[in-house]
Amino acid sequence: MSAALGGWASAGHVTAVRVTPIAFRDPPLLNAAGIHEPYALRSIIELETSTGLVGLGESYGDTEMLADLNATAPQLIGLDPFLLNDLQLRVERSVSNRAQRGLSLAPGTHGDKATLKVLSAFEVACYDLMGQALGHPVCDLLGGKVRDEVPYSAYLFFKYAEHLGSPYAADSWGEAVTPEQLVAQARRMIGEYGFESIKLKGGALDPDLEAAGVRALAAAFPGMPLRIDPNANWSLDLATRLGKELGSLLEYYEDPTPTLEGMAELHRRTGLPLATNMVVTTQEEFRRNVQLNGVQVLLSDHHYWGGLRATQQLAQMCRVFGLGLSMHSNSHLGISLMAMTHLAASVPNLTYACDTHYPWQEEEVIVGGKVTITGGAVRVPDRPGLGVTLDRGALERLHQQYLDCGIVRRDDAAQMRRYDPGFTGELPRYREEAKG
Ligand SMILES: O=C([O-])C(=O)C[C@H](O)[C@@H](O)C(=O)[O-]
Ligand SMILES: [Mg+2]
What we know:
- By secondary structure, this protein is of the alpha/beta class.
- The chain folds into two domains: 3-139, Enolase-like, N-terminal domain (Enolase-like, domain 1), CATH 3.30.390; 144-386, Alpha-Beta Barrel (TIM Barrel).
- It has helices spanning 63-72, 84-99, 114-134, 138-141, 179-193, 207-220, 236-246, 260-270, 283-292, 302-305, 308-320, 334-345, 392-405, 412-417; strands at residues 3-5, 8-10, 14-25, 30-31, 34-35, 39-49, 54-60, 149-151, 154-157, 198-201, 226-229, 252-254, 274-276, 297-300, 324-327, 377-379.
- Strand 9, helix 5 (179-193) and strand 10 form a beta-alpha-beta unit.
- Helix 1 packs across helix 3, helix 2 (84-99) packs antiparallel against helix 3 and helix 5 (179-193) crosses helix 6.
- The longest helix is centred in the N-terminal third of the chain and has 21 residues, at 114-134.
- 52% of the residues are buried.
- It binds 2,3-dihydroxy-5-OXO-hexanedioate and magnesium ion.
- The site of magnesium ion has 6 residues, from loops.
C-alpha cells in the first residue's frame, strides 16, 4: 500500500519496532575459528508505520547485538523512514558508547562495530518501507539495477557428517574431509544451483590437504573461478608457499594470513591478488591498505559496513583507488539475501560473484520458503521494497527454536572444544617458517 499526501508519497512514521531473535539449523561446517554450532542466530527486524506498512531487516542475533537493537528500538518511534540521516543520528545516540568497547565475537561478526551494525539492520527496513511507499524495488532507490540477476559463488566447506550428540537428523550433504568428498560437495551444489564460481572455506584442516582440495576442484571444474579463504589461519611463510603453489588456480587469495602488514608482505612476495573481509573493515583500515597496497579486493558486507548506502560509498572508494569489490556473507536467511541482491544489483564495480551461505540453510522465515537460485544467480525482484513478506508462523517457530536451543552468541571455538578440548582458536594455527 502506498500513501500519497498532497502529491508526495509517504511511508508515514514509525509506530512500532519489533526485534525477534531466531535460531535455524546450521550444519557442522568447519572453519579457522572452530565449527558451526547446531543452530545459527539471526535477528528479524520489523518497522511498522502509521500508514500500515511493515519494513523488514535481518541481522546478527548474538546477545550483544540484540541488546543494541532493543536499546535503539524505542528511539525510532516517530522516525520518517525516508530520513536516513535522522536514523543514523538516533542510532549513534543510542549505541555510541558500545561502539567504543570493541566486543570480541567470532570472526566475521565484527563485534566492535555496534553502531554500524545496528544502523544497517534498521536502514534496510527503512529502504523496504520507502520502496513499498513509492511502489519501487529497493534497487531503484539505490540508483537502479545494472544487472537483472546477481551471481553468487558455490561456498564450499569442509564439514563433519553430523553434529556431536545428533541434536537432529544429519543434513543431507554428508562428510567432507577429503578432496574427493569436497569435489562431490561441489558437484552437488553446482548441479543444484548452477553456480559458476567456487569459494572454498579453508583454515580448518591440514593446509596441504586443503591445497589438494583446491587442485582437485580445479581439475574437476576447469576454468571455473576459484578462491580459498583460510581466515588468517596460515603463517606468512606457509601462505607464501601455498600461494606460489596454488596461485595460478586462484581468482583471488582471501585472508590466508593475519594482519594488513602480513597481507602486504604476502602480496610483495607472490604478486597474487589478495582479498579480505578481515583486515579492511573500517575506513581507517581502508586508508592504511591504500598506503600499504596490502589487499587488492575488498569483500563488502552491508551488515557491518553500516548499510546499503555505506556499502555503495565503499564501492565508490574502491573505484577511486582501483580496488576490486566482492561481497562477504555469514549464515543468513532470505531477508538478508534479498538485501544483498538489491545492493549488488546496483553496484557497477561489484564484478565478482558474491558469497552466500544460503545453500546450507534448510529453514526460512519468509513466505514461499527458500529464495530460488538458478544459473548460480538470484533474480532481482521487481516488486516494491525488498520483495519479500514475513511468514509469521515460521517466525514464531524459529523464535521458539531460539528460546529452546540455549545458544545466545556464536562461538565456533567453544563448539570445537566439545570435540577437541585443547582447541584454542588462536590464529594462525598452521605455522611454517621458510628455511634460509
Ligand atoms: O568469508 C568469511 O570470512 C566468512 O564467511 C566468515 C564466516 O564466519 C565463515 O567463516 C563461516 O561461516 O564459517
Ligand atoms: Mg573471508
